[in-house]
Specification:
The chain is mostly helical. It has 17 helices and two strands. Helix 8 runs antiparallel to helix 9, helix 10 runs parallel beside helix 17 and helix 14 crosses helix 15.
Length: about 325
């Protein structure tokens, strides 16, 4: 596909723009607290509004089958609230200084504030979805949160980062990213046309895997202006992702030593990072990861094959192209 043909997220969101605007209003109402310090951080987080990919998926999946429910707007806000909570916690765990080009909560305030605010946002999400009165929805979102927490702990507890296998990587992607995207799609269908929930949950899982692989590719291929975070951040934080896993067996002793040097250095220099990026590219790691992203994208698209041929399903199909196109 030519770059000019890659769908934009804004284009995908255009048919549901009015409902997405209502999601933003719901979010603002959900996080309102009776304590000024909490509201100060909430206002800051909402001012750095993300791309709303997960709420978009909730609303689109809710429209599949032609029975959209008004509750889906609140549901989409709950999913985004859960997502923001995980980002706040992840930034604190990783000591990340920036996200989306802005200081993180832990950087602007403190790690203590970040932990408390992540807990606050998570608990607000649970309060809101519980008030909707469907225990299966509460269970689905709580299970996704549990899987994300285990994924984060697996990554934190890894003592031999360079010993990570491809299967280890896929399991981490499934836990940390795909679980919530899958839940977003399933929840949307649950409140719309439940008979499509299983297919859309599978679609969300495969799309989530595609999303994470392309996100990890961006760390090797794009600048901070594009990604909203410093280039090479995964390598700086000693995180092993698919491009490096694929490249390692192809490296000679001296090249492998250069990679090990980065992972042994608490603050590797830009020169060291760029050398590893170059080695990964030359060893075919980026090409391998791109192909795996396309494989998961094809699997996501296949999940839609038995769904009705209607606008929402066609947009979900285009969303696959959008996610894959992020790595170009």
């Amino acid at each position: 596909m030519l770059d000019a043909a890659i769908p934009t997220l804004e284009g995908l969101q255009q048919p549901i723009a009015r409902r997405l605007a209502s999601v933003q209003d719901e979010l603002a109402a959900m996080v309102e607290a009776d304590f000024g310090a909490v509201n100060e951080v909430n206002d800051y987080l909402l001012s750095a509004r993300g791309k709303f990919l997960r709420p978009t998926l909730v609303l689109l999946c809710n429209e599949v089958g032609g029975r959209p429910a008004p509750e889906a707007v609140r549901l989409a806000a709950v999913v985004e609230l859960m997502h923001v909570a995980t980002l706040v916690h992840d930034d604190a765990v990783d000591h990340s200084p920036e996200r989306r080009g802005m200081p993180t909560v832990n950087s602007r305030w403190s790690h203590q504030v970040a932990v408390i605010m992540g807990d606050y946002l998570y608990s607000r999400a649970l309060v809101e979805i519980t008030s909707m009165g469907r225990i299966e929805a509460v269970h689905l979102l709580a299970d996704a949160s549990n899987r994300m927490s285990i994924g984060e702990m697996r990554q934190l507890a890894a003592h031999d980062a360079l010993g990570a296998t491809e299967d280890d990587y896929y399991l981490l992607c499934d836990r940390k990213t795909a679980s919530l995207i899958s839940a977003a799609c399933e929840l949307g269908a649950m409140y719309g046309t439940p008979e499509h929930a299983a297919a859309l949950a599978g679609y969300g899982r495969d799309l989530g895997m595609t999303f994470q692989i392309t996100d990890d590719l961006l760390d090797y291929t794009q600048t901070a202006e594009v990604t909203g975070k410093p280039s090479g951040l995964d390598l700086r934080e000693h995180k092993v992702t698919l491009p490096l896993i694929a490249a390692l067996p192809e490296l000679g002793p001296s090249e492998r030593s250069a990679v090990e040097d980065v992972f042994e250095d608490p603050q590797p220099s830009d020169e060291k990072i760029q050398r590893v990026v170059r080695l990964v590219r030359e060893a075919g790691g980026l090409d391998y990861a791109r192909q795996k992203a396309r494989d998961y994208a094809d699997a996501a698209r296949l999940r839609l094959a038995d769904l009705p041929d209607e606008p929402a399903v066609r947009i979900l199909d285009q969303a696959v192209d959008f996610v894959v196109g992020r790595s170009k």
